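Run log, item B.
One chain of 375 residues. Sequence copied directly from the ordering sheet:
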Amino acid sequence: MRGVFLASSIAVFVLLSQASNAQQDSEIVQITHEIGDAPDFLWGEDSPDQRWQVTFVGFEVNGGFSENDSVDIFALKISSSNGTRVEIVSSNQVSIQVQSLNQTNWKIEESVSIHNSDVSQNGKSGEMNLSMGYHAVRVENQGDSGQEVNYSFTLINKGPAMIEQEEYEDLSWMFMNFYIFAGVFLLLPLLTVLWWNRNRWFGGKGPSGIDKQEIGALASLRKRFADEDGALVDKGLIERSLKNLGDGSWEFFVKEFGSPKINYKTENSETLIWTTSVPGEFGIGIKVIGKRWDMVAIRAYSPHGEGVEISSVEPEHMFQNDEVFLNSLEPNEEKFLKMIILSPVKEIRFHLSGIVDGEPVASSPNSSIKQIEEE
């Protein structure tokens, strides 16, 4: 009886091998039955021989377990040189496993199983990629091995094997120009701010001559009136010396710019105006006498009605158009400014104003400073 089964298996193997390529790609499911009792073990070092029934993708295989038989193994041949993705479908109460085999030593490299727990409305199924050659389908009875159990499964062709790329190629070089553009674009606002503030942050323009003179005077006073531990002493002496600091400022202007162009003195104020070698730049000294002046302001104007606009004031004070606001001045307090106007005019005059005891007061020299000589 065993010889008859063996001969039948060889005949089926030859017939199915001739039609394998056409049947793998066909949607028509071919039905075959288990011939004899399929082996319950994998073949050894050689290819599967006549003991293992060969099946193909696109086939439905019907078989069964007799008493004391619980495992059947079928050989699954893949003829496509690119491999095939195979789906195995079954609705029986058996465990089916598709095993991907190494074509040299026939070791199991990968497997996919379907069990009773996978049963759904459409049955149970599993998929895997299989290369060209022989692989195995293992069917196992999960019930009572003392009873006969029938089973069936279908092998469905899902197309060429899907290659899972595990390594990724570094293509960042393709975006190098974009990275450079994005970096410059994002850093441009910061570079602009740094450029605008270069003088402030990187030691550009230094203090004016007035500031230098006053800073030096204050440093000398501190050194003069400090004890060995650096603590200041004799507060009254310091206050008297600070009151004389203005005299040094007067002297600085006279030494730096010569005698003032305008020296206008009234009973309650004194105004001095110096010119420099820079057109539109003026040094201004102001001193009030007698009582405190509030809301003090000095205005530059043209007697010919030309527009005058101030561009900068040192030390910093609030100014608008042609007027600088000095807040309040104490009696005998001297105030020094350096004023720059935008466009020189033919003649320029200055007007000092403020409030004393709630009443407005003013001082306006009649002298003018010519900036543009008439032809």
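Observations after the first pass:
- The two ends are 139 Å apart (CA to CA).
- The longest helix spans residues 176-196.
Flagged for discussion on Thursday.
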